[in-house]
Amino acid sequence: MSTKVILYVEDDPDIQMIAEMAxxxxxxxxxxxxxxxxxxxxxxxxxxNLFLLDVMMPEIDxxxxxxxxxxxxxxxxxxxxxxxxxxxxxxxxxYLSLGAIGVISKPFDPLTLPDQIDMILxxxxxxxx
Amino acid sequence: xxxxxxxKLKKLQDKFASMLPMKLTEIEVLWNEFLDNKSTSLSLFxxxxxxxSGSSGSFGFKKLGDIFFRIEAELSSLSLNKEGIHHxxxxxxxxxxxxxxxxxxxxxxxxxxxxxKVKVRDSAQASLIYVLDDEKNLAEDLKFQIENYGYHVEIxxxxxxxxxSFSKIIPNAIVADIRLSDHEVSGPAAVIAATSMIDExxxxxxxxxxxxxxxxxxxxRAGGELYLIKPIDYEELVNxxxxxxxxxxxxxxRVLIVDDMxxxxxxxxxxxxxxxxxxxxxxxxxxxxxxxxxxxxxxxxMDLYMPECNGVDAAKVLRQHVCYMNIPIVFLSTExxxxxxxxxxxxxGDDFLQKPIxxxxxxxxxxxxxxxxxxxxxxxxxxxxxxxxxxxxxxMVLEREISxxxxxxxxxxxAMVDVDNFKAINDKFGHLIGDRVLKSIGxxxxxxxxxEDISARYGGEEFGxxxxxTSIDNGLIVLENLRKRFSDAKIHHAEGxxxxxFSVGIAELSPGETIxxxxxxxxxxxxxxxxxxxxxxxxx
Lengths: 129, 540
Description:
heterodimer; A: alpha/beta; five-stranded parallel beta sheet; 22% strand; B: alpha/beta; globular
């Protein structure tokens, strides 16, 4: 099981805490940022291989954060997962078109969060192969 | 079994839950500011709502999260149409539901927390009683004594006040004085004025200082279900309220289904579940004895013809055991097995139901038999005066609870309760009143304790309470609540009211302890409580 380093952006501290706890002792190593700007600044340092981004955030939102991250060639193809409260099919489609490989709906069940991420990644692998 | 992760999660949930009341209040305040001055910006409000909408569910508050989600939807409609009055009204209504939903969810989440212990039932479920009386002291007394048994009471001093509240929230019952001294409108007329505003029937109890024919007639015409003369017998009042508000006294029926066709067993289970029964099923009769011991059903629903062992033989084996001699067994059979049916009755089956069976018929047949069995059991197992378990059964149940606690590694506490100065009460007021004191303790325990808690009359004036899944400290909180309520209760007698108190000793089950150890420890603590001045609780 290779470790997955996740760049996680979420502005709500409560949700940050519970996500961190949910992914403790799993193969996912979380690096949490409260804003897209901070994340973009630190991204190269932590060398993530997965982005986990909240959609609705005060300064720059999830999709914009992803766009800016992708401007760096290192992260052109890094898979991204969005976290959002709205999960209508049309919206999921729009997130996928922005380059996300999946969407996790909020509120999420902390006990199954690692499994949800697993499933999205597996699906993505299958599509790639 | 809780993993390390689940414990950590619980800590986070608790922390979140402890912050919620403040956040909910903030949300209410922000919204009210907007309602007062429409030019106030809603951006802070919207942000707070959005955050809670996205996080509540992760912390176990799904219903609360749903309400926030709906408020968000209304907010987005509102932003498109600033004048949208009905969106504003919807938001106001949702906000009103926040605290009640919070309390009901937290009660469900935190079964071990203090909050759940002290609450009788979550406030969303407590029956609401309106008291109409302008005699202030009496009204306060009524409120206090009725609330002692887990109700929520609102006092009204005038007809207009009553009518106004009636139009907003309809109570489960009304207690009204026949005479309202300051007004011409008498009690019955006031009640009619209020209840005529709505379609629903609200039960009414009247209280009066007089026993006149005229007053009783007016009370009857106004739909009075009971007419009590002052000074009021609070126990009689609360008993009637329990009856009128349909307070559920019963635990749901437990039915064990035995059918080799799993899909049929599941169907029957689903039908009975929909009627509020708890079910379990097995598909082969060789598991019957184990399952009956573990599940403790009130009734067994058994297929008559099963490949390995037919229903008749299975029933015979069951009835070989003394303790299962009386559990009702209802057989399901098809027409071809008519001869079997007679055999089955002979070995102790109780009824036949023909397959395929209509859902309603199944529910009725099972309910009637389960009810009868329960009533019989109660007679055998309960003390007639207090309606609590009797001494022998208390010990049997305690043995069972101790095994369960050891098996699941859950805490178990017991409390031994003894009425203070009972001999003096009997000597001064007579044995009938002494009995009444005991009855009121029985009633208090049954009203306030949780479904899982078991209370018994242990001796003449001694009671025992088993608190499963409860630590000694949580037990202390429960018993303190009971102690206070009992010391405040006014017990009715010929010349007025008397008050009484009890002393309590609590002990928690330690590893390796037996039932005698546990009872002895609680008794020792009780002894200490008596010597420490009574009307108090001592931990072992």
